[in-house]
Amino acid sequence: MPTYDYECKKCGHTWEAFQSIKAEALKKCPECKKAAAKRVIGPGAAILFKGSGFYLTDYRSDSYKKAADADKKAAEPAKSESKSSESKGAESKGSESKSSKSKE
Fold first, then answer.
1. Long-range contacts of 75-82 (CB under 8 A, 24+ apart)
2. Do residues 34 and 65 share a domain?
3. Second label for 28, Cα 20 to 30 Å away, from 8, 18, 46, 60?
4. How far apart are CA 101 and CA 83, in angstroms?
5. How many domains does the chain have?
6. Domain range for residue 82?
7. Residue 79 resides in a domain
């Protein structure tokens, strides 16, 4: 439901009212109690997405998505190389500790 801005023609009082779109415009001013209120057209508000399932990246352009995929594919081989060197280092450490235990 939108929030509407109102202004009284008689006293100049301004206020906001939270109303249904189907509701008729208010006519009575809450300040002076006269039937001189009018709905003021405001600047509007930005669209707010609330709740799960709305992400800024959901509406990216196709060119952005293609560039991101290319970057991801370029980075994958570097990751697999670093993982294999780490696992080799861990294996050699394990074999060193076994050999040092057998010497004692």
1. none
2. no
3. 46
4. 28
5. 2
6. 58-103
7. yes
